[in-house]
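Tutorial handout. Part one gives the primary structure; part two gives the three-dimensional structure as tokens.
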Amino acid sequence: MERISAKSMQILLLGEHLRVRLHNERDPGDIIKDRRYHLRLYPCCFVGRDVVDWLVHHGEAVNRTAAVQCMCILQENNIIHHVCDDHMFKDEMLFYRFRRDDNTLPITHDVALVIRGYNISQRPLMNHDATPNDSIIKADDCHLVKQQQCEDFVYRSCFIGSSLVDWMVERGETNDRFEAVLLGRELLEIGLMKHVTDDHHFKDDPSTYYQFVIEKVFAKKLMEALCLLEGRQLPLTPGSPREVRKKNLSLLMGGRSIPVPLSPSREARGNEFTGFRQSPGSPDSGGSPGNFSPRPVIVREVTVDELLDNNGPYTMKTIRVMSDAVGFGFVVRGSEPVFVQTVDPSGPAAAAGLKVRMFIHSVNGKEVLHWTHKEVAKEILRGQNVLDLVVMTHFRGS
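Part two.
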């Protein structure tokens, strides 16, 4: 059985979180409610224009255009739909509905698991004194999820494995402890929770600590989160945090000017992935044309110390790439550490298992963690048609 992708899971979580927030909205009036039009009743729906107003007012989108794009992404991913399936989402007086509210959302095992995990992590259940209006579990006001010390580290918003098992049995989430452990393991495997150091699977143990990672999905505004997942550009307002981050990221990636999109033409694509088949004196690493600078794929700076931390989430992997007539088929960028920026999906690097966002640890036996991407490119060019790489990637994959 094919598992739900990380992208689909996060879009489902973002949609479910928005649905719950809109259902809980009581000011100035219910956004989601039964509505009539031409003597026909449309239960549990919302008006497109009202949700656009709400998203802009709550800062989830910078403007109405961005709000519409967010909702269109949710519609394309079967989270919402027009009540008669006649329209894409528009900033108009049209009725739409969450598919969860009319039972038209295709429910697979993984989809049901994601929704169940969301409900568990968001319920105020973990605080016996919580009220029905409480939403996301706070570390300061609950007895189960709180700051915990594990060896020499203090972890925020974490819980003990056996305590969650106790809670799930007491609250009727599962029939017994065995079933609770199985549910916990599934939630961990799908990526909704994690061990604080990623060292253990979920187990009924009073000495293992875990965290829900769902809140990290909601750390960004809806506009930014969906834009990252779909790889789309949303309007920027002058001086907005996203514009500042974009400029800072450009400086971080070696002081280049703001990157331009890759050419969609076949010729440009072929040139970009010549993959270290240039002369060693070539100024660009990766064989892309001189005027092209791919958009950075690393959204957060990762240090060499983080990569080498024994308790960190990064693992090593050895990859051998056999060059074809064009080259190795990938592009690197960055400095200390260098990372894989682009991989030709039909090239030899992709076939060998190289992926975007992998960090280069060594090239043909030489450690390059403290090198620049130009130095790494020159080292690759010195080799023959066989390239031995040691890469580092997050244990959950890129």
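Part three, for discussion. DSSP finds 13 helices and 14 strands in the chain. Residues 307 and 314 are 6 Å apart (CA to CA).
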